[in-house]
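Input (Putrescine aminotransferase):
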Amino acid sequence: VYPTAALREADARHHWHPFTDTAALNTEGARVIVSADGVWLTDSDGNRILDGMAGLWCTNIGHGCEEIAEAVYAQMKELGYYNTFFKTTHPPVIKLSELLSEITPPHINRVFFCSSGSEANDTIVRMVRTYWQIKGKPEKQTIIARHNGYHGSTVAGASLGGMGGMHAQGGLPIPGIHHIAQPYWYGEGGDLSPEEFGLWAARELERAIDALGEDKVAAFIAEPIQGAGGVIVPPDSYWPEVKRICSEREILFIADEVICGFGRLGTWFGSDYYGLKPDLMPIAKGLSSGYLPIGGVLMADHVSETLEQGGEFFHGYTYSGHPVCCAAAIANINILRSEGIVERVASDTGPYLQQKWLALGEHPLVGEARMVGMVGALELAPAKPDRTKRFEPVGDVGTLCRDISFKNGLVMRAVRDSMIVSPPLVITREEIDDFIERVTKTLDATLSELTK
Ligand code: PLP
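Output:
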């Protein structure tokens, strides 16, 4: 039994929350989560809540995993910390690097470690610019990214991201970042068919390269499926066309795998799902299933070989390759492998969830349901099937639905007026039934609030 009111009061007084309207929080009070097991969270009042977001898209193997706790404890006793600077290494970082080269495509064999996806993307900005300097093309510095993409909260990560609200605070983006359209057919496709729109959005990359000058463009960065932007699943025509453009033009391709990596789409990486061949892949989240903070930059051989020619790369973090975080990640990957979790998402629980989720598209409040692997969205719509009509003001209905969902014992996230989910990959069929029931109840309750 926890003293919820006292905890909330102390939280409001001393804790500054990320991505939170602090004034609103101080009136309402935060939800206090005290423990978790599998797909279930428990709050300080003893309520059980189904974690439909796997924390922040990260607890892929589910909460409360004993093997990870034991691996972490054993590593802490053996070597709780040492760095990897200046020609130093240790067994956990070596083991994890090896494991990653086993599960990534054959052309990726090196990894640089950091503590988060944001740091991974910061690192990448410096890596790609340095790459072209070493190649004797120092003018190639601009990185093309997408509107409504998300690549983290550090200065470079938020600059690569295409979130207007983030850019407005603190004078972002930094110079040398250019944003193009996202492949968001439901919201921005106009009269085009999904396939036509997918081609148009992909060719925005080609048009941007031409407008900026190919000799100025270093790289294109994109999430295989945009997560925080609202689980934007691109039309089928999008990635093949981007692949064509990247193969014809002299630019690096960065697939941000922070959400899509480690089984989320029923493949080890989102790039595997779409048949992409990235030069660099930032990873984090599912790398340790969120048990400890660890991220990394996976590097294609030609990238690591080129950077090697440049002498010392003046970049690194105290916690690059932290042994305890590496131990957590090793245990996590071993569990994903030995329990066949990725395969299960591809061929068993994934299709089971998708079928039920897509059927929610029939609900009177849902304009579109989409899901790949175990990441999905419901576009709430005021006048389905008209895609052009939006709730006014944008976002209020999403927030209402999110709050009702929480009261129904389910975490769903709201992005504008879309409800998005990304449950732990270990969710069982019975839990999926329960999950869908809670979503349906939430949609019904939201609709009845709106029609009151
Ligand atoms: N890239 C993507 C695609 C993400 O979704 C996120 C976080 O949500 C990040 C990068 C940033 O990762 P982190 O929050 O670990 O810094």
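Residues 180 and 207 are 9 Å apart (CA to CA).
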